[in-house]
Amino acid sequence: MTELASHPNPTLPEPRPGSRLGAWIQNPVTVKELRSRMRGRRAFVILALYLFFLSAVVTLVYLAFASSGSPTGGGARTAGKGLFAAVIAVQVFLVVFIGPAFTAGAISGERERQTFDLLRTTLLSAESFVLGKLFSALSYVYLLVIVSIPIQSIAFLLGGLSLTELILSQVLILVAAVTYAMFGLWCSATMRTTLAATVATLAGTLFVTFGLPLVLFTATIIISSLSVGMAGLNPLGEAFLLYSGLVLAATNLPATLVVSEIFFLEQNTLLGFNHFIGSFRLLLFSPWPLFLLFHAVAAVALFAATVRRVRQVGDS
Amino acid sequence: MAAIIELDGLTKRYGDLTAVDDLNLAIDEGAVFGFIGPNGAGKTTTMRILTTLLRPTAGEARVAGHSVITEPVAVRRVIGYMPDFFGVYEDMKVWEYLDFFAACYDIPASTRSGMIDDLLALVDLGQKRDAYVETLSRGMKQRLCLARTLAHDPQVLILDEPASGLDPRARIEMRELLRELKTMGKTIFFSSHILSEVAEICTSIGIIDNGRLVASGRMEEMMRQIRAHRLIEVRYLAGGEWDESGIRRRLTTEIGVLSVVTSESAGLPPGSLRFDYNGDDAALAHLLGKLIGDGIPVLAFGEVSGDLEDVFLQVTRETNG
Fold first, then answer.
1. Do B37 and B162 lie in a common domain?
2. Statement: residue B213 has pLDDT above 70
3. Residues of B in contact with A5 (CB under 8 A)
4. No. of H helices and E strands in chain A?
5. Can you tell me the distance from the alpha carbon of A310 to that of A307, in angstroms, rounded to the nearest whole number?
6. Which of A278, B170, B221, B260 has its CA 20 to 30 A from that of B181?
7. Is residue B108, in this structure, part of any structural domain at all?
8. Contact between residue B272 and residue B234 where contact means Cβ atoms under 8 Å apart
């Protein structure tokens, strides 16, 4: 057997310490994806169509409120609330369905295009690859969310909307966008084809957004009716149901937005308030901090699982 | 010379199927190694293990001293890989494609522009710098992919069927490019079905069949080992007193004639036959004189030089029983 040589490559640069932030900003995958996505008219046409659609929705909502009540005072505030809710609904749809749809094909598409192996033999780490895909998908979704804020801000002119509500709703939506996009990426890394990844992603987001609340709502009603039917609902049982409801609301973006808004408008609190059941005192908390925690943990776990899947050396 | 690629008992199994079976091989630095074998012989599997894309079931593979199992990043640092089938990104210009992969190899942005120009000049795609990758011909895409493998100036190039699917002109260009890379001191490990091309540029070869390495070594040694004897072809005037069976019987009486192959079994035109001979030139000249002296109407008498195709056929025939 011939003697094995040691060959330090003199030309290849060593990884540069201290340039982690720069590496994140100049992630090659992000740069490549954004170059492709933002080139030509397609991205701007989509943006224009989105804003046109949003403007139409806002106009319809305003006209509906204007035709049914006074355009000033309380009526205007109601119209402002309605307008705000309509834009939020569109934004929720964006982050729950459009963002994950972007990421669902991100990794499986590389496999289908036969470019995945080329990337895996480079020095690009699995973390950088996944982050690059995430940033590029999120940047466009964030762009769509952010450009809708000026239209959403028309609600300020009508009244009925505070800056706190606007900021809180946007923070929740932007954080949820990360988790949902990560879920799409995880499906993309796990499934063999983009079609399977897209179906799994949309099924998952649909279930979490609408299916899970429906199942839990039904379960709550059944438990509640059983408790009342059997022995009447005692304070502990009621507390259990209330807390369960709040925790479950914190797993769901529309529910968190609605419940947090109710807490803010009706109890004038961002965090929580005391609720009495007879002499029994309960601290009811607004679900949004828990929502942020849940989604941050889920995003990190999905990121780790996706990286592990990408890093996995094939056996076939 | 030191080995830059070393395979030690390398084995890859998929269930009951053994794709690569106990491969042992050492390739010297600066060598151009041709890895040849029929489809499904295990060439691509071996290359995918060498490029850290597959984990071997048993054994070890090292590139520049780094284990593909325990030091995959170090291995990726020293190799450039071009698969047999590869995709390109849509909506991407030629320079962007190279810039992207250079960034993936941590090449600083400040040096990339000049490097891209150099690489494009090397593969003769300088005029296509701003063209979209999807508009390039197959041959151009192959050369662009080769340029990509050179982005980080690797010591070892692992090329899976680099000339596959190319037209003759593009194939010649690819061959010239490999020659150029050889003069640059790169170690090239490549597979090919086109044996004449392998023979033209390789310094050493390995023949794999059914997952087993059936022969390997320097090109000239392989030729010598495989054909220790000389192959002589005789053409004679057919239809005369001497027929094929008569000449065959006459030849087999001679010392040094190992075996005689008839025109039909050797795929030769009528009036020809071949025989294996282990004598020297003087003995061969004496034999010719005796044949003519016996009245055999010899039209041509000469040694057939073996080529890689003969080597390949002989080795794979022997191993397949």
1. yes
2. yes
3. 2-4, 29, 64-65
4. 16, 2
5. 5
6. B221
7. yes
8. yes
Compute the distance between CA of residue B94 and CA of residue B117 in angstroms, rounded to an integer: 11
How many whole angstroms separate alpha carbon A152 and alpha carbon A88?
Answer: 8
Which of B106, B152, B216, B218 to probe the A interface (max A CBs under 10 A)?
A: B106
Has residue B313 been placed in a domain?
no
User: Which of A2, A128, A129 is the best residue to mutate to test the B interface, defined by the most B CB atoms within 10 Å of its own CB?
Assistant: A2
Could you tell me if A291 and A248 are in contact, meaning their C-beta atoms sit under 8 angstroms apart?
no
* Residues B78 and B139 reside in one and the same domain: yes
Is residue B212 situated within a structural domain? yes
**A121: contact with B, CB 8 A cutoff:** yes
Q: For A70-101, what is each residue's pLDDT tens digit?
A: 555 566 777 888 888 888 888 888 888 888 98
Looking at per-residue pLDDT, the higher value among A41 and A134 belongs to A134
Q: Given an 8 Å threshold on Cβ–Cβ distance, is A1 in contact with B153?
A: no
pLDDT in tens, A267-279: 777 777 777 766 7
Using a CB–CB cutoff of 8 Å, tell me whether A34 touches chain B.
no
Closest residue in A to B145 (Cα–Cα): A118
Strand ranges for B142-261 from DSSP E: 156-160, 187-191, 204-209, 212-218, 230-236, 257-261
Question: Could you give the CA distance from residue A198 to residue A103 in angstroms, rounded to a whole number?
Answer: 9
ipTM for the whole complex: 0.79
* B256 Rama sector, left if φ>0, alpha if ψ -120 to 50, beta otherwise: left
CB A153 within 8 Å of CB A170: no
Q: Looking at the structure, do residues B185 and B238 belong to the same domain, yes or no? A: no
A231 touching B (Cβ < 8 Å): no
Domain with B78 in it: what CATH number? 3.40.50.300
Cβ of residue B103 closer than 8 Å to a chain A Cβ: yes
> How far apart are the C-alpha atoms of B276 and B232, rounded to whole Å?
6
Instruction: Give the whole-angstrom CA distance, residue A267 versus residue B79.
Output: 65
pLDDT score at A212:
78
How many domains is chain B built from? 2
Q: How far apart are CA B125 and CA B139, in angstroms?
A: 11
* pLDDT at residue A6 tops 50: no
Tokens of B78: 């020293």
Count of beta carbons in the 10 Å neighbourhood of residue A149: 12
> Which CATH number is B275's domain given?
3.30.70.100
Q: Please identify, among B171, B199, B218, the residue that sits at the C-terminal boundary of a domain.
A: B218
Judge: B87–A9 Cβ closer than 8 Å, yes or no: no
What one-character-per-residue DSSP string does B15-41 give? TTEEEEEEEEEEEETT-EEEEE--TTS
Q: For residues B125 and B49, is the Cβ–Cβ distance under 8 A?
A: no
User: Where in chain A are the domains?
Assistant: 21-315
Do B178 and B32 lie in a common domain?
Answer: yes
Do B164 and B103 lie in one domain? The reply is yes
